[in-house]
Each structure stands twice: as C-alpha cells, then as structure tokens.
UniProtKB/TrEMBL annotation:
Domain of life, source organism: Bacteria
A Pfam family matched in the record: DUF1036
Protein name listed in UniProt: Uncharacterized membrane protein
Entry keyword set: Signal
InterPro entries per UniProt: DUF1036
Signal peptide: 1-26
Organism: Neomesorhizobium albiziae
Length: 162
C-alpha cells in the first residue's frame, strides 16, 4: 500500500511539474515582439509616405516609402527613440493626401533632410505632417484609410502596434 501511494504521489508531482513548465517553455520559445514604426495602407492604391522625427542632432524628415494597397511597411526599425513622430502621405494614383498642421521639408525623390526650416531656400518643398504621440511606446502603427473617422478627424489612425 505504501508503494502504491508513493507511485501515485510521484505521478501527481510529475504531472503537476509538466503543467507548470508549459508556460515557461512557451515563453522561451516565443519570438520576441518586434518594435518599430509601421504604416498600413488600407486603401487599394499605392501610397508614398514620409516620416519626421526629432533625433539627437535635430529634426529629420525622410521618405519616400512606397506602400502598396492593403499592405504594411516598416518605416523605422527597432525600438522607437522619440515620443512624437510625424507622417505625411500621398495617394500616388488618385492624388489625395494624408497631412496635418506641422510643416516639414520633403523632396520630389527619395530624401533625408536635416532641419525643418527654410525648406524652399534649401531646395526642398514643404508639406504638412500629422503628429503622432506614441506615449513612448516601443512600437507604433499608423493605418491610412479611404474613409474619414466618424468624429470628422483625418482618415489616419495610430496605435501602439501591439
């Protein structure tokens, strides 16, 4: 009788250990969350996207990323280093745009511009960017849509990308 009780106890302990180990094993085998700044294009058209942010050396704008319809693209890889990011996008097929009140410099072709003042004098164009407060999240996702939001704001939404 004592042997049967020890065997049952050993079986229960082994089963309990296996059940408790599953979450640990799952956590170890899970891929880490990828931190980045992404833009998802919920339209059917090709969209050109530019992003602005504050770097250690000052303001930077860069573009153009081409985001096909119904796809997403990572603009900034890795954990975000700023709280605020700025976005400007143009519909390459219909000519519409997603913009905002913050003026920054852009160029006609691929660009990376330091500074946001005197755009025209430095040979650049000026565009209005929409500000996104990421709340210091490690990653963020902006979705471009055809339809305006129900509260009348621009047809762009942002989230922590989680």
């Amino acid at each position: 009788m004592e042997i049967a009780r020890r065997q049952r106890f050993h079986l229960v302990v082994t089963a309990l250990s296996a059940v408790l180990a599953l979450p640990v094993l799952a956590a170890l085998s899970a891929t880490p969350a990828h931190a980045d700044f992404r833009v998802c294009n919920a339209t059917q058209n090709l969209v050109g996207v530019a992003v602005g942010y504050r770097a250690k050396a000052g303001w930077v704008t860069e573009g153009w990323w081409h985001v096909e319809g119904s796809t997403c693209k990572t603009l900034i890889e890795g954990q975000l280093s700023s709280r605020y990011y700025y976005l400007y996008a143009e519909d390459a097929e219909r000519g519409g745009r997603w913009d905002g009140p913050v003026n920054m410099c852009v160029a006609e072709k691929e660009f990376k511009v330091s500074g946001v003042s005197d755009c025209f004098a430095r040979g650049f164009q000026r565009a209005g960017f929409q500000e996104y407060d990421t709340g210091e999240q490690a990653s963020w996702m902006v979705q471009l849509t055809d339809e305006p939001a129900t509260d009348g704001t621009a047809a762009v939404t942002g989230s922590n990308g989680q």
